[in-house]
């Protein structure tokens, strides 16, 4: 379960940043792409375990799930995929290989109270 190692890393990063600002972390905001290979539910459960007995205990993990968006050369447009089973433009059906979004695993914000 690699979600636990991700959660531990997120907790470490949040603790460092909170230490720089002299406050307590209330919430951690992550963006996770559909192709990142991370199960959001497992990450939420792992986050609670990773926070136990740390200054982040009781904080919330807020996850924004990012859909896969590809670039269709035929349409010359960005298109969200309708299914991860078919990497084809949902408008014209052309197979696509350029992924514009959906692989993210980003710590985007912390809510810190003083």
Outline of the structure:
This protein is of the alpha+beta class and 114 residues long. 28% of the residues lie in helices and 33% in strands.
- How many runs of DSSP E, i.e. beta strands? 6
Number of domain units: 1
The share of residues in extended strands comes to 25-35%
Q: In DSSP terms, counting alpha (H) and pi (I) runs of 4 or more, how many helices? A: 2
Strand order of the largest sheet: 2-1-6
Quaternary class: single chain
CATH architecture: 2-Layer Sandwich
Low-confidence stretches: none
Helix content: 25-40%
Mean pLDDT: 95
**Named CATH topology:** hypothetical protein PF0899 fold
Instruction: Output the radius of gyration.
Output: 17 Å
Shape: elongated
How would you explain this protein's 3D organization?
This protein is an alpha+beta fold and 114 residues long. The mean pLDDT is 95. It has two helices and six strands; from the N terminus they run αβαβββββ. Helix 1 crosses helix 2 (40-51). The strands form two sheets. Strands 2-1-6 form a three-stranded mixed sheet. A three-stranded antiparallel sheet has the order 4-3-5, with no helix packed on it. It has one domain (2-113): hypothetical protein PF0899 fold (2-Layer Sandwich). Helix content is 28%, strand content 33%. The protein starts with a helix and ends with a strand.
Descriptive labels:
about 110 residues; alpha+beta; hypothetical protein PF0899 fold; 2 helices; about 35% strand
